[in-house]
Amino acid sequence: MKVVVLKGGRSLERSVSLKSGARVEDALERLGHDVVGIDAGADLVDRLEAERPDVAFVAMHGREGEDGTVQELLELVGVPYTASGPSACIRCADKVLAKHLMRDAGVPTPDFHAFSETAFRELGAARALPAIEERLEFPIVVKPASGGSALGIKFAADAGAVPPALVAAFSYDAKVLLEAHIEGRDLAVSVLDGPDGPQALPVVEAIPRDAGPYDFEARYEIGRTAFTCPADLDAATTQEAQALALRVYELFGCYGFARVDLMLDTAANALFVLEVNAIPGLTETSLLPQAAEAAGVGFDELVARVLELARDRSVA
């Protein structure tokens, strides 16, 4: 089978995408496929038409790769592709849209408020910050509405820390999310489709080795974070986390695989869903491959299953 691996692109997560793509290419070559890596750019359509692949393996993260853009393009040129379709990608990529979707469906998620840069510049939204800060209480998390890999996320311990956190978030996106901070354990549940439907993989817990938040550097620098999989949780909490992940996976309309990030409030012993990643990382330190390995699915088998799912969907 001829497979193009779409990677790189122009997003701020380009470096992570290149690592994911390279690892996928190695696996596909070991599996015996004819593999062509494409660093997505202005010549993408020309490259796709020249290569005429059987399937495109999407290993792009962030804007253009994870927000439905490249998925719509692949459908337009008639190339089957891995992972979720445009509508699911759009819902997952926009954190504000995702939060509203979860809240409307009754999925437990931290309380939040969202603003656009226009609201701050032209509608006086800054005057409403004291009310927001009172409702959410400190500390709060300020994050861009789109993007992943913990880029642009800032923790505001008090009111004085909110304005610079907003400036940082607005440098990544024109819309920001102010979210109640949940003190507890950072968990992730990956979901992998199979012949019997979506399957929740073992829970992964990320434990930063040094003080501070689980940010971009902590996530991708080897040695900065310890990962436990399966996470050291009681059976009831594990089952609840996996059930929540499956519920959200289906709510968002995901396909193939995805990762659901959660927080376990240790004081209240309650789970909260933070976000859904339609195309999670596939690097050496990424959580989906770790969870699959714990479930007895090696990386090559994981890639093979995802590829087969793409082929099955194109046939359907």
Describe it.
Strands 8, 9, 10, 11, 12 and 13 form a six-stranded antiparallel β-sheet that branches. The longest helix is centred in the last third of the chain and has 18 residues. The protein has twelve helices and 13 strands. The protein starts with a strand and ends with a helix. It folds into three domains: 81 residues, 3-Layer(aba) Sandwich (Rossmann fold), CATH 3.40.50; 133 residues, 2-Layer Sandwich (D-amino Acid Aminotransferase, Chain A, domain 1); 69 residues, ATP-grasp fold, A domain (Dna Ligase, domain 1). A hairpin with a 4-residue loop joins strand 12 and strand 13. The chain is α+β, with helices and mostly antiparallel strands. The chain is globular, with a radius of gyration of 19 Å. The model has no long low-confidence stretch (mean pLDDT 88). Helices cover 39% and strands 23% of the residues.
